[in-house]
Amino acid sequence: MKEKKLFEKELVVIRNKIDKIDDGIINLLNKRGILAQKIGNLKKKENKDIQYPQREKEVIKRMTKKSEILSPMNIEKIWKEIMKACRLIQGLKD
């Protein structure tokens, strides 16, 4: 019984830390989205394509090298989704 309470207490502590990290991640994604919107506006003014595959490859390569625990395949999937969302922001907002 005592071990179960200790387990649950530790679980709550760890989950609270994860919640704080998740809050930080969403704040950073919001900031990234705002910057992507600015880039989209610049690209529209210069009549440039929204998608830039070479830049996306560079970002994925850089992030894969920085990952200490997630596999390169997972990093690639995560960043492709992030960049896809940012492309939508660039293409849909003025």
Q: How many H/I helical runs?
A: 3
Give the CA-based shape.
elongated
Q: What is the C-level CATH assignment?
A: Mainly Alpha
What is the second-level CATH architecture?
Up-down Bundle
Distance between the termini: 58 Å
How many structural domains? 1
DSSP E strands, number? 0
Radius of gyration (CA) equals 19 Å
State the major sheet.
none
Average predicted confidence as pLDDT:
93
As a percent range, the share of strand residues is under 5%
The share of residues in helices is over 70%
- Low-pLDDT segments: none
**Class by SSE composition:** mainly alpha
The named CATH superfamily: Chorismate mutase
Q: Mind explaining what this structure looks like?
A:
This protein has helices at 2-45, 53-66, 72-92. The protein is mostly helical and 94 residues long. The chain has one domain (2-92): Chorismate mutase (Chorismate Mutase Domain, subunit A). 4% of the residues are buried. The mean pLDDT is 93.
